[in-house]
Design brief:
Layout lengths: L7 H14 L19 H10 L4 E6 L9 H8 L2 H4 L2 E6 L4 H10 L4 E5 H10 L5 E6 L6 E6 L14 E3 L5 H4 L1 H8 L7 E3 L6 H6 L5 E5 H10 L7 E5 L10 E6 H6 L1 H20 L1 H10 L8 H16 L2 H6 L6 H14 L8 H4 L24
Parallel strand pairs: 1-2, 1-3, 6-7, 6-8
Antiparallel strand pairs: 3-10, 4-10, 5-8, 5-9
Helix pairs in contact: 1-14, 3-12, 3-13, 10-14, 12-13, 13-14
């Protein structure tokens, strides 16, 4: 069993991030709580000028709208979806498992969530199969986080501790596999269940010793709660034997079969927005903030979230080599085996059962822009 230490380079970068976010401690909640429509004047104007009726596509986010949703917002604002004949609207999500459940009922046409929870859904609902049609996060943000002041300095320090997470949390379901990799008895852990919005609060208040969750969700909240990055122990699953992919664009298999051109058009427009985000993340962040009708979104918190994702989830050696959107077959197959064990699935799904590359756009939209074309995030 190999326990990988937290990357020193990343630690230095996150300490710098933490210093910059100290100013927003105590600010308003960083994301709106109301359902948010995703229509735009750009899409409407494009539809009018083309004199054609756009196909409505209903999308659910994985959680509250965040800076990570920038590609979607950009594609709406700039009329990329409209150019493909789509009128895209979106609603906030309530966690990955809930998003997948609602996608399975047909309430939404497309959704952003992880394919491992989707495999769990498919195992229980074989007649409503969900598939991933593009990866948006090459690395999963699955992580365990605790405070060094509480004696959490390495994964082995979790032994016998009280941990917290929502019941449907993917990292919580996979924790026994993580524990096996790092040498912790999962039966020694006492779990506390709470609503997703209370997870970081429980840790900050000392009600739990550590939490499982997404780094992109938890870290900004912990920093906003007054912690510094050097106070936090962060253990990524991907650095401890579980090389999972992150969120993907999901749809029902039946919807993709009946509307292949719609799915292709959606993925193409989305990755046009993704390319814009990679080239100018500051403009992308500003677009998300401007789309927040509640005006409760905290820009600095969202900047931290996007910076973590850009560095740890989006731009990886695999993406540099193979491009955005796709998967490495061997890597996916291994994580599927781990998911079968972690989620205690009855069936034995294969990579072909959960992911297809047939809806991905041309290579130019999937190739990372040259480093010289990527502006810094500020």
């Amino acid at each position: 069993m190999i326990v990988k230490k937290f990357n020193a380079k990343r630690m230095s970068a996150l300490v710098a991030i933490a210093a910059s976010v100290a100013v927003f401690t105590g600010c308003a909640n960083n994301t709106p709580t109301a359902t948010t429509p995703g229509s735009s004047p750009a899409a409407t104007n494009a539809a009018t000028s083309d004199k054609k009726q756009l196909k409505d596509v209903r999308v659910q986010l994985s959680f509250l709208k965040q800076s990570l949703d920038a590609p979607l917002i950009i594609a709406i604002n700039k009329g990329y979806f409209a150019e493909e004949g789509l009128n895209v609207t979106y609603e906030r999500g309530f966690g990955n498992a809930d998003t997948i459940s609602k996608l399975g009922t047909g309430k939404f046409d497309m959704a952003f969530s992880d394919m491992y929870n989707a495999m769990d859904f498919n195992d229980k609902n074989p007649n409503d199969k969900i598939i991933a049609v593009a990866m948006t996060q090459n690395k999963a943000p699955f992580a365990v986080m605790g405070f060094k002041a509480n004696g959490i300095n390495s994964p082995k320090d979790l032994t016998g501790k009280k941990m917290g997470a929502p019941a449907g949390d993917g990292p919580r379901k996979l924790f026994p596999l993580f524990a096996e990799e790092v040498g912790v008895d999962p039966n020694s852990i006492e779990w506390t269940t709470m609503e997703p919005k209370l997870r970081e609060t429980f840790l900050l208040q000392g009600k739990v010793d550590a939490i499982s969750g997404f780094s992109t969700s938890a870290l900004p909240s912990l920093l906003k709660g007054g912690k510094k990055m050097e106070d936090i122990s962060l253990f990524y699953y991907t650095e401890n034997g579980l090389d999972f992919y992150g969120n993907a664009i999901l749809t029902k298999a039946s919807f993709a079969q009946q509307n292949p051109e719609v799915v292709k058009a959606f993925v193409k427009a989305y990755f046009r927005g993704f390319q814009d985000m990679l080239k100018d993340p500051t403009a992308a962040l500003d677009a998300v903030i401007a789309s927040d009708d509640s005006k409760l979104m905290n820009r600095e918190a969202e900047r931290v979230r996007l910076e973590i994702a850009m560095r740890d989830l989006y731009i990886t050696p695999e993406v540099e080599k193979n491009g955005l959107g796709g998967v490495d077959d061997k890597r996916l197959a291994k994580t599927i085996e781990q998911t079968i064990a972690g989620f205690k699935l009855k069936g034995k799904p294969t990579a072909e059962d959960i992911f297809t590359a047939e809806f991905l756009p041309a290579k130019d939209l999937l190739t990372l822009p040259p480093t010289s074309d990527r502006k810094p995030l500020s």
